[in-house]
Sequence to fold (318 residues):
Amino acid sequence: MHGTAYANFSVTECDLLIAVGARFDDRVTGKLDEFASRAKVIHIDVDPAEVAKVRPPEVPIVGDVKEVLIELLAQAAKEPVDGQLTEAWLNRIARWKEDYPLQVSTYPDKLSPQEVIVEVGRQAPNAYYTTDVGQHQMWSAQFLKNGPRRWISSAGLGTMGFGMPAAMGAKVAVGSNEQVICISGDASIQMNIQELGTLSQFGIAVKTVIVNNGWQGMVRQWQQAFHGDRYSSSNMEPSMPDFVKLAEAYGVKGILVERKEDLQSAVAEMLAHDGPVLMDVRVRRDENCYPMVAPGKANADMIGLPERKQLDRALEQS
Fold:
């Protein structure tokens, strides 16, 4: 739904789609009859209930992903590979990446949410990251470049309040030598904010970054895009607590960031602190998360992209 344009175009126009331990839920497929409509599908999953539940595969494989992939690669190794067969296709994807990159919004007097996440990721590239649910979750998925097994999110389950408890568990598991950072929103954080007491009590050095736009951000975006700017119960600003004071009340270090020029040093201070930290970063209030596939639309039909004249150019060169 908020994936990169080049990934959505690739899935839409590929001729073979290998789904490895993935569910074809509505957040993945968009308009089902246009999802990978040109492709044959190989679906690998340990749960037989997931295979053919939504998208019937041409090749269903029920089994442990590791065992299946080892066997699949062993079979594939027996066949010679002609790299020229996929050269045009890979060039086309490269062109999509060039024409439709993810954009980090910048403003002269306000921080953008993307800037915050990029800076945290730059200073802590090897951290374990957890997220709550909403726009910050999607921006984190888009812009964090963390390595394998270092991304912990409730994904399409949409569990607001997931981030801090998940970070707490991860930090206890990985130990003191690893950074664990929770990216949250000003609405999601309040679902389980009492866990600041647990972090304080046991000295669990989780760093929590609140991307604070004063809204239930994803709800606001949907109300703007699909409900004629009728904002109902999504404005968090009138009853927003002072997060820094709240953190300090629990015995946790609180940091407030309101200016662009303070972001870099504040992130460094957060990461250097020997203990839990809650950093409240005030960002532009009405930033939307793009690209976006609207409900009921095909994945290739994304909001927030320029016209697809670039696709015509790519087709001509392929």
In short: The two ends are 27 Å apart (CA to CA). The longest strand covers residues 40-45. The chain has two domains: 5-101, 113-282.
